[in-house]
Amino acid sequence: MLDINLIRKYPESVRRGIAAKNADPALVDKFLEVDRKWRALTQKFDEMRAEQKKLGEAKRVEEAKKLKEEIKKIENNLNELEKIRTEILYQIPNLPFKDVPIGKDENENQVIRTWGEIPKFNFKPKDHMELGEALDIIDTKTASKVVGSRFNYLKGQLAIMEFAIVQYVFSLLTDKNFIKKVAEKISPDFPDKPFIPVIPPVMINPETFTRMARLDPGQQDERFYLPKEGLYLVGSAEHTLGPLHMDEIIPENKLPIRYVGFSSAFRREAGSYGKDVYGILRVHQFDKIELESFTLPELSRSEQDFIVSIQEYLMQSLKLPYRVVSVCTGDMGGPDARQIDIETWMPSQNKYRETHTSDLMTDYQSRRLKTRVKRNNSNTELVHMNDATAFAIGRILIAIIENYQTEKGTVLVPKVLQNYLGIKEIKIGNG
RNA sequence: GGAAGCGUGGCAGAGUGGACGAAUGCGCCGCACUUGAAAUGCGGUAGGUCAGAAAUGGCCUCGGAGGUUCGAAUCCUCCCGCUUCCGCCA
C-alpha cells in the first residue's frame, strides 16, 4: 500500500503515477474524500471517548451511559468509513520510478541490453517437447491423465538437472567471495552479505497473503485455495519469504537481509486459456529459486541492480542467450516501482520469452507487513523490499534443452552443471 | 484427532475490575565518575493514529473477534497460535 501522506500531500503526482500504470486516477479523489470524512469523524470519536472517560471517573454514571450509546453509533460509522478507505487504498498501485518507460502494455517494454549469440543450427531444431518425449525426460501425457492439463513429469536426467541447478545456485549465492565480487561492481562499499538459503512453506493464510499485496481483487482468481483449511497455495516462494520479518523492527546493522528460497509454485493460469498450452512453458505447478531481500530505503535501487547482476551472471554461466528488459509502467506489477525482466532465447519459438523478473517494491509491501528498520539515529522507518527470480526451473530447462540440442537429438549439459550431473550429454539410454 | 496448560513491551516476567500502556530485572541509549574501559550512580527507552510549524496533547492497541460494565490486560463467548502428554503419520 502507498503512503497515505503522499496521497494527501501530492495527489497530482499520485494521479499521474497510477494512471501510467493503467490504474484509475480517480481513485485518488475517492480516497481523499473518504479520508477527509474519516478524519473528521475520528476527531469527534476521540473527543467523545475522552469525555466519557472523565464522566466515568467522576462517577457520573447516568451521563456516561448516555454518551456511550452515541459513541457506539459514531464508532460503527467510523468502522464503515475505514473499511471503504482501506479498500480504495489497496487498489492504488505503487508509483513507478521516473526512469521507467511509460507505456500501455508489453509492446512498450524497452530492451536495455542483449547478451549471447543466438545459436545457429545447421539442422531443423526441435522444440523442448519433441526432445523431451524422445529422450523420455518430459511426460505431459500421463500427467494430464493423472492430474489434468498443464501438469508434467520431469524424469531421468532432467529431474537430476533440476537439483543440479538448485545446488549450483544455492552454493554460489551463499559464497562470500562470489557475493563480494558482484557487490564490488555495484560500488566499492556495497554490502556483500551472502544469501541465507530457505525452504519456505508453500501454503499461506489469507491475512498474510493480503499484507503481501498478492491477494488483491485482481489476483484472487490466479490462486489455488484450500477451503477446508482456509489456506492458499503460494504462486511463488516470494509469498512466504516476504513475510519472514513482518511486525519486526530490524536494527540497521542487520540489513541487508538476503534470502534465496526454493519452492514449488502454484498458479491457476485463469484467463490464459489457450495461451502457451503446448509443452511446459505455462503450467499449474513448477519449481522456482527465488531471491528476496530487505534493505535500507536508500540502497534498494542498487540492490535491484545487484540482483540483476546475479541473474545475468547465472545466465552467462549457463551460456544462454538473453536480453534484459525494462518493463514499462503499464506492464509492471502493481507493487513495483521498477521491474526488470530477463527474457531467454527459445529456438523453437524463434524469440525471447520471459524467464526471470526482478521487482523493486520500495516500501509498498513493507508498509502493510510492518517490516521496519531502527536507524542508528533511532528513527524507525519502513524497509525496502526486492524480489526476483534466480531460476524458474521449468522455463530454464526448456531453454537448456532447446539451446543445447544436437543434430542427433541429444541435449548437451551446460558446463557448470556437468559435475553435478556426472554426465555431459543427455541421450536415449542415459535419460 | 483427544487432554491439559499458556499467549503481556526488544527479551524475561509481574499484574485477576478504576490509581495500568503496564511493576521489576536484563538489554539498549544519554549523562556523571574514569587516562580509557569495566563496575557504579542518575535519567531515558512500545507501536499506531488524529490535531499541531513545533513543543505537546487526544484517541486506539496486553494473540484476534465479539460481549458484560459508567469503566476490562483482568470477567464471559467464540476463534487463532504455541507448549506438553496421548493417538495417527512422512
Task: State the helix count.
Answer: 14
- Largest beta-sheet characterization: 8 strands, mixed
CATH architecture of the largest domain: 2-Layer Sandwich
User: What is the strand tally?
Assistant: 18
Rough outline: elongated
Strand order of the largest sheet: 1-11-12-13-16-10-9-4
CATH homologous superfamily of the largest domain, by name?
A: Bira Bifunctional Protein, Domain 2
Strand-pairing-aware structural class: alpha+beta
What is the CATH domain class of the largest domain? Alpha Beta
Low-confidence segments? none
CATH topology of the largest domain: BirA Bifunctional Protein, domain 2
Tell me the number of structural domains. Answer: 2
- Measured between the Cα atoms of the first and last residue, the distance is 48 Å
Overall pLDDT score: 93
The Rg value, from CA coordinates, equals 25 Å
The proportion of residues in beta strands is: 15-25%
Helix content: 40-55%
Walk me through the structure.
The mean pLDDT is 93. This protein is elongated. It folds into two domains: 4-91, Orthogonal Bundle (Helix Hairpins); 106-426, Bira Bifunctional Protein, Domain 2 (BirA Bifunctional Protein, domain 2, 2-Layer Sandwich), CATH 3.30.930.10. A hairpin with a 4-residue loop joins strand 6 (225-226) and strand 7 (231-233). Helix 3 packs antiparallel against helix 4, helix 7 crosses helix 14 and helix 8 (176-186) packs across helix 11. An eight-stranded mixed beta sheet has the order 1-11-12-13-16-10-9-4. Strands 5-7-6 form a three-stranded antiparallel beta sheet. It is α+β, with helices and mostly antiparallel strands and 431 residues long. It has 14 helices and 18 strands. The chain binds one RNA strand of 90 nucleotides through residues 39, 42-43, 45-47, 49-50, 52-53, 55-57, 59-65, 67-68, 205, 249, 251, 370, 374, 378, 380.
